[in-house]
Amino acid sequence: MSDCCKTNDSLSEKLQSCSSCGVVGKKVKTITLKTMLKPSSLELLNAELDHYFCATANCEIVYYNSEIKSYSISEIKVPVFQKESLLDTPVCYCFNWTKERIQTSIENGLTPHPVEHIRENIKANRCGCEVNNPQGSCCLANVTKFSSQFGG
Q1: 3-class secondary-structure state, position 91
Q2: Which residue(s) pair with 76 in the sheet?
Q3: Of the candidates 75, 102, 120, which is a domain's last residue?
Q4: What share of the chain is helix, strand, coil (3-state, %, to 5)?
Q5: How would you class 41 by CB atoms within 10 Å of its CB: exposed for 0-12, middle for 13-18, buried for 19 or more?
Q6: Treating both helix axes as pointing N-terminal to C-terminal, what angle do 99-107 and 140-148 enclose, rounded to 10 degrees?
Q7: Residues 6 or more apart from 50 whose CB is under 8 A from it?
């Protein structure tokens, strides 16, 4: 897990489109699906296939593979930031930065600042994004973009 917030170009070798929305998803490691899928869906996982994360907000599909097997929002253990509008939805799954906590922190000038707090934890090798974050990769870009809405 020490490399969870580093770019891994080998994960982007093949492009595969979501069968529902048609957008090309990001390849994710099998460990991400093993962690995120509810038991009944995990039983159907073909771990030998490449799987992809669909970040399209209005698409019900979260993961899919080249054989058109897909897993929807209802099959995932946690709310998915890209697909959920509720304020208690995590943006950072490792350090519990929810949409509401980020907004409150930025608007009120509280410390720690979400982006800086996460960066400190990344430097200390504490993140585990491939098993905590449904997108299977670092949340820092999501947190930075979300924070910018509030001047952070």
Answers
A1: strand
A2: 37
A3: 75
A4: 35, 15, 50
A5: middle
A6: 50
A7: 14, 16, 27, 65, 66
Residue 2 falls within a domain, yes or no?
no
**C-alpha closest to that of 59 among 77, 32, 82, 86:** 82
Query: Which H or E run contains 148?
Result: helix 140-148
135 and 86 in a single domain? The answer is: yes
Here the tokens at position 76 are 């995932």
Backbone φ and ψ for 43, nearest 5 degrees, come out as -65, -20
Is 4 within the bounds of a domain?
no
Q: What is the Cα–Cα distance from 146 to 22, expressed in whole angstroms?
A: 25
- For tokens 């980020």, name the residue: 102
The model's pTM: 0.89
Distances (CA, A) of 102 to 38, 59, 85, 96, 141: 28, 25, 14, 10, 13
CATH assignment at residue 26: 2.20.25.270
Render pLDDT for 67-103 as a digit per residue (tens, 0 to 9). 989 999 999 999 999 999 999 999 999 999 999 999 9
Residue range(s) defining the domain that contains residue 17:
9-75
